[in-house]
Design goal:
The complex is a heterodimer. By secondary structure, chain A is α/β, with parallel strands linked by helices. Chain A has 15 helices and 8 strands. Chain B is mainly alpha-helical. The chains are: A alpha/beta, B mainly alpha.
Chain lengths: 400, 132
């Protein structure tokens, strides 16, 4: 065992997470519990790297011996991995960390649920920038299973005016990503905002739409980068919107209106928005909905407007089959039913669904740009915890 | 943090927050090991490992606060040598602690070592005592 396998990179401690007016306050021991789980996740990224050894030394030779050829796709690799005791142990542990993180977050949030709901209500009261609609129901693709084992999804309310699923989501993102998204858990949004500012200096969007915003953590940096823009953030789940709006108000970001809506049927007129953004949203859809949503986004975007989507990288023929199979883990074992299908799609094909031409297609990498001197900025990962790293693929197009 | 106060609020809201915190995510749970019982033990072990880390971190906080207040130094902990009496008490504690943890192995061995009348099956006795 090389020393660097497990000791090369330490996750930041949980006390570095920025607090705001509705943040679930952890006790000393609850903080320590998050520290343990983040460290365990970091350790397991090292364990996961051992799957490569198993693949080269055991799975590949055995497969070639049996079939007279190498693996041809990620599903074949997955079937071989499933029978391997090393992968089984790693998987059992990884599933456990997801469940432990949920328990840890929910136990912090639920013991103070009444207090948190009260704080949110106070921040949200009478504000025209929060528009809820109890007619909107979470679609089946978002509620048939609890996505990434997040108990209650984005929509469940234990009491009236509940924000607990939003608070739980906020409490644990730092842990799942081992601090990679920065103290404000908004690395994805900051990466997009700074990329767009740098790349498209003449772009001055007046109306921006963020689709599937959850708690708004990735739209706030965009709203801050374009303070004169009218920003609309939509989601189907009321608790995450209540939480996200209260969070934004407390952080002093007032140009975002949080709206509960059915993403497939939005009543904005054609060409209403200059910029439409989705961040880690597409993989939580379904084959039918992605078509309908892409077409709706294409319709609402102004000619000359920008559509950008942030995702983990899609599987290209160049990507190692083992990496594809490991990236697929979240699909089969972390309740992300559309993850494998979506990441297997050609991103240009996704854009075509919205009527975008290949000529206008763009793709670039964006990393969570951390604030200068930020102690939480992790060193370059020795082993990528596939599907969790704070380096995203951004793809999209200008509408002609 | 006043836990009793918290329990009262939970009663008012009718939320069993302890059970709710550990609620199963919606969807069928995948199992990875060939023996689900072993996987459950793994799960419990990891949770206990977590709680040990929590305790270790609390102790670390305590030591650092005491040191910062000049009450003790962590070097004193490192260089601490128990007296004869301290050593005896500690080693006794270790022995009791290990015996407690390893109870099942002790009892498994006792089952082999002891005579059949020490190991009668309750099912057999139930039959015997109900047909008398």
């Amino acid at each position: 065992m090389k020393k660097s396998d497990y000791s090369g990179q330490l996750p930041p401690t949980y006390d570095k997470v920025s607090r705001h007016g509705v943040f679930p306050e952890p006790t000393h021991d609850e903080t320590a519990r998050f520290n343990f789980i983040a460290s365990l996740n970091q350790h397991l990224a090292g364990v996961s790297a051992g799957n490569k050894v198993v693949y080269e030394k055991r799975l590949k030779p055995n497969f070639i011996k049996e079939h007279g050829r190498n693996f041809e796709n990620r599903h074949e690799v997955h079937r071989a991995l499933k029978k391997d005791p090393y992968w089984q142990t790693w998987s059992a542990l990884r599933r456990n960390t997801m469940e432990m993180r949920q328990q840890a977050g929910r136990s912090v949030v639920l013991r103070q649920i009444d207090d948190l709901n009260g704080k949110a209500e106070k921040l949200n009261e009478g504000k025209p920038t929060l528009k809820l609609n109890s007619e909107i129901k979470s679609p089946r693709y978002a509620s048939a299973v609890d996505i990434h084992c997040q108990v209650g999804g984005y929509h469940t309310e234990l009491v009236e005016g509940d924000i607990s699923v939003g608070a739980n989501y906020d409490s644990g993102i730092f842990v799942t990503t081992t601090g990679g998204v920065g103290p404000g858990i908004d690395g994805g949004g900051r990466a997009v905002a700074s990329s767009v500012k740098q790349k498209f200096t003449d772009f001055k969007p007046k109306r921006i739409l963020d689709v599937g915003c959850t708690i708004g953590h990735n739209v706030l940096p965009i709203a801050q980068a374009y303070p004169d823009a009218e920003v609309i953030a939509i989601d189907a789940g009321a608790p995450v919107l209540r939480y996200g709006h209260a969070r934004a108000q407390d952080l002093g970001v007032n140009n975002v209106t949080f709206i509960q809506a059915d993403v497939e049927n939005l009543d904005y007129e054609d060409g209403y928005f200059d910029w439409i953004q989705t961040t880690m949203f597409l993989h939580e859809l379904s084959s039918k909905s992605i078509r309908r949503i892409m077409s709706e986004l294409g319709r609402m975007l102004k000619p000359g407007g920008l559509l950008l989507q942030v995702e983990q990288p899609n599987y290209t023929p160049e990507m190692d089959l083992l990496e594809q199979a490991i990236r697929d883990w979240d699909c089969w074992y972390n309740n992300e039913p559309f993850w494998s299908k979506m990441h297997g799609m050609d991103t240009k094909e996704i854009m075509r669904m919205g009527g975008f031409s290949d000529d206008n297609y763009m793709e670039f990498k964006a990393a969570a740009d951390t604030v200068d001197g930020d102690v939480t900025k992790p060193a370059k990962a020795i082993f990528e915890d596939h599907g969790r790293e704070a380096l995203w693929t951004v793809f999209g197009a200008w509408k002609s | 943090m006043d836990r009793i106060w918290s329990m009262e609020i939970m009663k008012k809201l009718n939320i069993d927050y302890i059970a709710e915190a550990g609620k199963k995510p919606k969807g069928k749970r995948p199992w990875f090991l060939n023996n689900p019982e072993v996987e459950k033990v793994l799960s419990i072990t990891m949770a206990i490992a977590g709680e040990l880390a929590v305790t270790r971190e609390r102790l670390d906080t305590l030591e650092r606060i005491l040191e910062s207040k000049g009450i003790m130094s962590r070097d004193e902990i490192e260089s601490f040598t128990p007296t004869e009496n301290d050593a005896h008490e500690r080693q006794t504690w270790h022995a009791e602690y290990l015996a407690r943890i390893m109870r099942i192995i002790q009892q498994d061995r006792e089952a082999l070592e002891t005579s059949p009348d020490m190991n009668e099956a309750v099912e057999d006795l139930a039959k015997e005592f109900t047909t008398e």
